[in-house]
Design brief:
The protein contains eleven helices and no strands. The chain is mainly alpha-helical and 209 residues long. It has one domain: Tetracycline Repressor, domain 2 (Orthogonal Bundle). The longest helix is centred in the middle third of the chain and has 24 residues.
Amino acid sequence: MRLDSELTARARIGTVALELFGSEGVNRVSIRAIAARAGVSPALVVHHFGSKEGLRAACDQYVISLVRGDPDDPVELGDASGLAAMLEEAEPVRRYLARAFLDGTPQAAALFDEVVETTAAWLEQGATEGWVRPTGDARARAALYVTWLLAPLAFGEHLSRVLGVADLHQTDATLRYSRTSLDMLTHGVFTDERLLNAWDAAAAKRRTR
């Protein structure tokens, strides 16, 4: 049986790893650095996670668990207090995702695929329940939705400059740009279908060539 102190140490190591991997990148962070920040020995890090790769995999699983949500304690749509708490908790996660996708590793590709699959199921559930519009290509919708959400992470430096914020990953900044994103997704940008009709016409023209 593991002692509570061991479980606490494991959680502390995971938290530190998530923060350091997000701020510096997995390749630039050593087990020794993680151990020093967590206040434990490098041997204890290896004891709990096996290796740095095992620690990175644990961070990936934690991120995925946040994406999937807790089925026993879901964040209800429209629950401002629950949403705010999730955003506060996810600040290190946003940094971790930004670094992972910019590094472009096979692990990051697998993480992206998992996020897309989870999001596709969530959107399909929303379509069934009536709060998501149906679509003819559910997989493309999920992939583009995830890409939309992750774009601020990849363009963080430029968005920070344009929006006039020091750190795009801070919760206040995230609430600012994500509110605008949700407004665009909920109400749309265009007031008529002229661009959609133009796209359909161009596609039809190519099919007749």
